[in-house]
Amino acid sequence: MAHIVEISDADDPRVDDFRDLSRADRRPDRPGGRGLVIAEGVVVVERLLASPYPVRALFGVRRRIEELAEATAALDVPAYVADAGVMASVVGFHLNRGVLAVADRAPVIEPAELIGRSRRLAVLEGIGDHENLGALFRNAAALGIDGVLLGAGCSDPLYRRSVRVSMGHVLRVPFAHLTSWPEDLKLLRDNGFRIAALTPRADSKSLRDAELDRGSVAVLLGSEGPGLTDEAIEAAEVAVRIPMVSGVDSLNVATAGAITFHAMIGA
To answer: Does the keyword Transferase apply (predicted)?
Structure first.
């Protein structure tokens, strides 16, 4: 099981994986970043422990570490215990949730592999906001979407804030990166997918009539504000809109995604 290690000195190098998260956040594209996966809070840590991501260590106040005793029973990793003050000095801010875990990244899934084993997919373009991205993954998990394809302009779904907002579900919904955009959408068509672009354009088909619950379907979702690019919409077989009352022209992308995912499962 995870072995308890007491930490009394904030400069202890054994907790360097958890250090200065407010500044570097361990993203590979930021100074000091290492690309580690970071989970916050008991529920999200439990989901990390149940995921394919190899856990390196836990760090928390004693009460939270003890709450995770059953979930960590099969792990051979350190569980660092400190008081809230020492933990805040290490992390760089006071952590209300009281516990963190870090893991290495799992092997990257190739788009063809994900497409080949899926029937319902979300395809994202320009989703740069980490909270929107995390919320989309949470909605995808809740509504039975098989995976997420990340197109141009998307942020890292394993960024700490995205993991937190997704409540750890980004760790269970498989995702892959489309490196040539929108050319790689051809992979979907070659595998029998119907591609639907979600857009508020008046000439698009109503979601009620789009029959997204039939066959293999991939739905394109774009960023708030500009939405999908013209190139992405033109690459789809059908443009689809969510009917709304007069005076409201769009929804938060995570909300729009949830409504569309619900239509895709035919519920």
So the answer is: yes
Closest CA to 115 of 146, 139, 138, 137: 146
Longest dimension (CA), the chain: 63
Q: How far apart are CA 1 and CA 93, in angstroms?
A: 29
For the entire predicted model, the pTM comes to 0.92
Q: How many helices and strands, by DSSP H and E, does the chain display?
A: 9, 12
Of 32-36, 125-129, 150-154, where does mean pLDDT reach its minimum? 32-36
- What does the CA dihedral 20, 175, 170, 218 come to, rounded to 10 degrees? 140
Predicted confidence (pLDDT) at residue 108 exceeds the cutoff of 90: no
Same domain, 131 and 83: no
Highest mean pLDDT among 32-36, 128-132, 201-205: 128-132
Residue 161: count other Cβ atoms within 10 Å of its Cβ: 17
Residue pair 75/68 in contact (Cβ under 8 Å)? The answer is no
What mean pLDDT comes out for the span 242-255? 87
- Dihedrals phi, psi of 131, to nearest 5 degrees: -70, -40
Domain end marker among 80, 103, 126: 103
CB hemisphere CA count around 128 (13 angstroms): 8
Question: Is residue 168 domain-shared with residue 199, that is, in the same domain?
Answer: yes
**CA 144 to CA 126: how far, in whole Å?**
23
Task: Tell me if 18 sits within 8 A of 5, measured CB to CB.
Answer: no
